[in-house]
Amino acid sequence: MSLTHEVLAPTPMRAIFSARSQVQHMLDFEAALARSEAALGIIPAEAATAIVACCSSDRYDVADLAERARQAGTTALPVVQALTSAVPEAHRRWVHWGSTTQDVVDSGLMLQAAEGIDLLLAWLAEVGTLTARLADEHRRSVMAGRGFLRHALPVTFGLKAAQWTVGVADLVHRLRRTRNEDLAVQLGGANGTLASLGGRGHELVPLLAADLGLVAPVMPWHSVRDRIGHLAGTVGIVAPIMAKIARDIGLMMQTEVEEVFESTHDRPASTAMPHKRNPVEAMTVVACAQAASGLVGALQSGLVQEHERSLGSWQAEPLLVADLFLATGGAVEALRNSLAHLEVRPEAMRRNLQLTGGLVMSESVVYALAGKVGRTEAFRLVDDAVRAARASGTDFATHLAAEPAITALLDLDELSQALDPYGYLGSTDHFIDEAIGHLDAVLHEEIRTPPC
């Protein structure tokens, strides 16, 4: 892997999609196939025991297998050949019985994807816990809500973090569903009929799936790759949602804003500018999301395949799926690091809320007036006041208090209430409670065993 992979892709995810791990998962398929066939009496039990004993990747030279795979044009063929040679001669003929190379590659990839999703789920639970904590701790940290990058209405940082929390919880739910429903074993034999198994292939599939902890498909899916499409779509949405949070953090770290900071006191700032405090973790998240999105498109474009076995499309999937998991894992890990060391500055949020001179409360004043003169007239009065305050450079509250058309309808107490950002937060507390409760419910869902 490149130095960039070392920087962006987390070590545990690289281990899952390493060459040795790929070999091991293909051997896991072969071991499960032998056990399942022995259970049905398709191959002798002694042969299955001998095959399983040789299904550890530690027995094989992975570099040599990689070189042979380049010559063969498939990763599975040299693995099956090496396994066959390792098994005692009396049992060799039962190795890979009734299967084909695509069965090995696809099933191995599904096992890797299952491990990759399990890792993402664990990390996302940590991310969600961090965002939920921020939501709860900053319920009253009032700040400017921003639309089109401009100040809109007052919100709280807790509400912003609650939105993040719901996004994370929904990702956990979708990933878990993919893990339980879409990751299927592949067993179709030479061309999808399992003819070599003498009419017993359909009995073998559920046993094999249960052994591997994968879904038993209705039939082989050699050239109908909707499962790959679902996997790409579900995993592929994770990094962009992480990047939405990271983008918020990066924007809030701008020098002109400085509402949050990534605590990176021990990290070099810049090769040229010692004063810089860069949002390095947020940057990593966005970079990984950019890579992940392109990989999703590449996987989706490969769904159109020919007849019973495609020429080139499915063969690209292991590389693309691996890179998708590496990029996604990089995004989740970097965001977890960012959130774990995030400095929140409520005083800067309050300061920035006043940058418009109180104009962020214009809607509140409209609705305070609307009960007396109707919304249309109220909007006109406040719009005129906003324009006049901007033109004169006067604070919004000062201008309103001196405007007869306003004071004729609102006394000073009513006007003060309408201009209080803490009094115009609507259902914020309720939404924060709901977000935290939603995450808790999702994280404590019982993870059911895949159907077989």
TrEMBL record:
InterPro entries: AdenyloSucc_lyase_C (IPR019468), Fumarate_lyase_fam (IPR000362), Fumarate_lyase_N (IPR022761), L-Aspartase-like (IPR008948). Coiled coil: none annotated. It comes from the Bacteria. Residues 357-436 form the Adenylosuccinate lyase C-terminal domain. GO terms for molecular function: isomerase activity; lyase activity. This is 3-carboxy-cis,cis-muconate cycloisomerase. It comes from Georgenia thermotolerans. SMART domains: ADSL_C.
